[in-house]
Design brief:
Helix content is 56%, strand content 5%. It is mostly helical.
Length: 556
Amino acid sequence: MRTWSRRAALVAALAGSLAVMAAGAAHAQDAEPVYDGSFIPTNTDLGVSLNLLWVVIGAAMVVFMQAGFALVETGFTRRKNAAHVVATNFAIFGLGFIGFFFLGYALAFGGFSYPGYFGMDEPAGEALVKIGDWVFLWQGNFALSEMGDAARAAPIAAFFFYMVAFMDTTATIPTGSMAERWKWKSFVVWGLFCGAVFYPLFAAWTWGGGWLNQLGNNLGLGFGYVDFAGSGVVHAVGGAAALAGAIVLGPRIGKFAADGTPRAFPGHNIPMAVLGTFILLFGWFGFNAASTFAATDVRFAVAALNTAIAAAFGATVCMFYVMRRLGKPDPSMMANGMLAGLVAITAPCAFVQPWAAAVIGSIAGVLVVEAVLFIERRRVDDPVGAVAVHGVNGLWGVLSVGIFASGDYGAGWNLTTEGEAASASGVTGVLYDFGLGIRQLGAQAIGALVICTVIFGIAYAFFKVQNALTKGGIRSERDHEIEGLDLPEMGVLAYPDDAPVHLDESTGAGAGARVTLPAGVTRGRRRPAGEGVCMTVGGAAEGADPAGGVRRPVVR
């Protein structure tokens, strides 16, 4: 009896649970969907607060990407420069931030507003440089001096935090291409200039509401220049500066033979670089998904998924392509393949379907390999592949909007009220509507052309002028470069065990004093056979092997 009673009770409990679930399902069928393709929930006060939190969390994730950049660039460069490289990645955050705080933010976003989402319903300023309907610079809220009351201050604070994190990404890209031979004081000037002037220019023309942003209203080119999270505004702009800086600095000593053949300078810590890549992957979800500026705009889920898809396809296709092209799956190339996929999907992530994200990431995985090899053949020395990853694939991401955008998101983008796009359901590429798509692709191409010409030209002019005005130029001294920049420029070694020691010949013990060697000669700890590269005494190019040279080990 007791057994039957227990069974009856269990059956009754299960029946009750099923009845509750059925009632809940019936109720759910009557519920209004959260997102039906055209409806974004109306923001209440709670919704605005949620969106503010969303923006701040996204900004924090993008700031954390600086740790990823630091690990990637330090791992991909040589150990004798590790403290210098990681320090540039650390210092750029503060330098760029200060320039952006005092000047850059107002120039780029003084006229920016985003009504109805996180409380930034009115701009703080107005146009500073304007010709008719074509705006080139803004003004307003210099040094955040016009925050207003508490209700107005919160959205401005959140937006500034998010944008300054994006600016710092642009600023840090040249620290990779110019690594291992960039004089510290010259680097400091770049950090301030990038935050105050360089990044704000293209940002003002695009995200700030300037002339590229309004190509749709003014010239009928789709929705104007569209870049959801910054393939162009952040990455290609940084890549243009990276290329300009690498050209002005010239290659590292010994990187190219007399006939132009490149020599491999392997990174000293591949696991460090791969860990940095994973950190960047994590931060990129804040970079892309949070660019909705609203958790109530649930398109963030599509942006996040497309980001992951492009990263996976970029890394994997790059791996297989490198195996076929070069023979073995180089881990550094695989890491750059993932980063290339991430850079390329950043502009179109919210506008394309998952299949397109896979295609965009796959093409990026091939492009990055060919771009690295092409740039090296042109005798441009880029130690970490920054130009290939951010420059080339940033441009690819910009153009892919005009090809793959599916037209189901982005209605009214850039406040477009003129032309065919004004009545379109969303940003549309040539694969979905050739007439509207070709106009959109035209706007994207103009943006890419401006980056390749105007933005690159400004960066090149800056580095050339700085090089001419700086005593000794912006490149580190030859002896310092050969020895490694850690001690001469930073005063510390990343790896203290590399410090040379004086050998007490009477006891065989190291006394700890630094050995004084002839000019042009440095010596580090003894290294296992095959590790490191030797130099020749007498100022010959590092890595060369002229007859009669006396060879000494150099710390890598």
